[in-house]
Amino acid sequence: MQKISKFKFIISVIFTLIAILYVLPNFTNNHRLSWFPGDKINLGLDLRGGSHLLLSADFDSYMDDVSQSVVESLRKYLRDEKIGYRNLQVSRNNIKFDFRDNDDLKSLKKIIKNIDPNLSFAVEGSIMTLYYSEYELNQLQDKVIDQSIEIVRMRVDSTGTKEPTIQRQGVRDILLQVPGEENPAELKRVLGKTAKLTFHLVDDSANLERAKTGHAPLDSKIVKSEDGSEIMVIKKKVIVSGDQLNNAQAQFQEAMPVVHFSLNNMGAKKFAEATTKNRGKRLAIILDGRVLSAPVINDPIVGGDGVISGHFTVESATELALMLKAGALPAPLKIVEERSIGPNLGADSIESGKTAAIVGFIFVAVFMVLAYGILGLIANITLVIALLYIFALLSMLQATLTLPGIAGIILTIGMAVDANVLIYERIREELSKGCSNLYAVKLGFESAFATITDSNVTTLIAAFLLYSFGVGTIKGFAVTLTIGIVCSMYTALVITKLMIDIWLKTFKPKSLGL
């Protein structure tokens, strides 16, 4: 008699018990029971509804920042080239100044091209005006909206399992619908932060009192601490910005939550150079115009890694790390409209879907029993366990279940039954050759293993590609499909084999009923 694997039996029992604990909250009225490890599965917009936000990108603010950046670059080039100018005036998409020598016009054109090849200019006498054409403005606007959509997606759905609806609406608006979020306040808080991170040297030589009255040095500016209790003067020059971050994650340092960050090659080089030259000075870490911290540079930081400390909680450190990884919004987002929305599908449609799934499962179960007898009954039991595992993993990952996700689950149910059919048909072939029940079961599983593995691995590859390149409901379908394949393979190849071995050892049937 073939021995039953105690290890596989114990592991399967543990997995099943854990799965039951994670699935049970879905059958209670409370959203979460304190002594259960899991939470309810999130339902998508089509099944449950959620929050609806209409966001508007503040493109005018973005253009103000662009104009200021152009002015700073222009001043630097004019100073380096020793070109005289006066009456420099800055307004949105309009920069005017008088240049003193007409012979400098050729050099000025070259400077403008170096600052931004898309920047247009006009000359009237000794007055030069810099601006972006209507076409370039439209291009910049499209770029801002596209970047904002991707950053919003990263902030709202960093794991790709919530399946929000994020799309452009009109010229500057972005429609955001998040399933299950009945209160938009949390979304508004996360999206209300631009998360623009910059590093500046503190200007300790500046007179703070004069700076407060608006007389800060030309190359410096005043900023406040995060809670507004402290004011300091910092250099305007940005040493490193958030767009040069490679990664950011929340960690603990001396039992306090901090945000650890790593820079790309260019950022690491600039950071190392600045910290080497300015040892003993303070380095201000600025987030959205507020000072998070201003530590003293004791030693050069040459590895490209650093830590942002402050008055963080675990939640705020995790949130900041997520926003830094997602990147800064190119322009602030204003909430134009907010409301809670109901499910896209009516209750009748949802009930019809449930009925169809139950009826389909019953037909499959009856067919398996009629075709394979007691082995068909075992296949039905393992199919139920596979569904238990699937819903447990969905609860663990807090994935959002939508109709495409349900389709992925139904597909994996079909594949799980298909795996059992392959195994049973191979067992039947071995029995027809005169093999004993035990030997036929052993050979049946061994010969079907390669076929089942190949078919499921190819499907997993497709699911991986869908998750990597898809968005929204496509990602959700890929997640449920992957979970379903893994669970169905385990139950078909491990749990089915265990149950058949236990049945053979306990009841010693003369026939397998095939």
Please describe what this structure looks like.
The protein is of the alpha+beta class and 514 residues long. The protein folds into three domains: 6-48 and 346-507, Multidrug efflux transporter AcrB transmembrane fold; 51-58 and 139-339, Gyrase A, domain 2; 67-125. The chain is built from 13 helices and 19 strands. It has helices at 6-23, 59-81, 105-115, 134-156, 185-191, 208-212, 265-277, 314-326, 347-372, 374-397, 403-432, 437-469, 473-507, and strands at 42-43, 50-57, 85-91, 94-99, 120-124, 127-131, 165-169, 173-179, 197-201, 220-225, 231-235, 240-241, 245-253, 256-263, 283-287, 290-293, 305-308, 333-341, 400-401. Strand 3 (85-91) and strand 4 (94-99) form a beta hairpin.
List the helices and strands and how they pair.
Elements: H1 6-23, E1 42-43, E2 50-57, H2 59-81, E3 85-91, E4 94-99, H3 105-115, E5 120-124, E6 127-131, H4 134-156, E7 165-169, E8 173-179, H5 185-191, E9 197-201, H6 208-212, E10 220-225, E11 231-235, E12 240-241, E13 245-253, E14 256-263, H7 265-277, E15 283-287, E16 290-293, E17 305-308, H8 314-326, E18 333-341, H9 347-372, H10 374-397, E19 400-401, H11 403-432, H12 437-469, H13 473-507
Parallel strand pairs: 1-19, 10-16
Antiparallel strand pairs: 2-8, 2-18, 3-4, 4-6, 5-6, 7-8, 9-12, 9-15, 10-11, 13-14, 14-17, 15-16
Helix pairs in contact: 1-10, 2-3, 4-8, 9-10, 9-11, 10-11, 10-13, 11-12, 11-13, 12-13
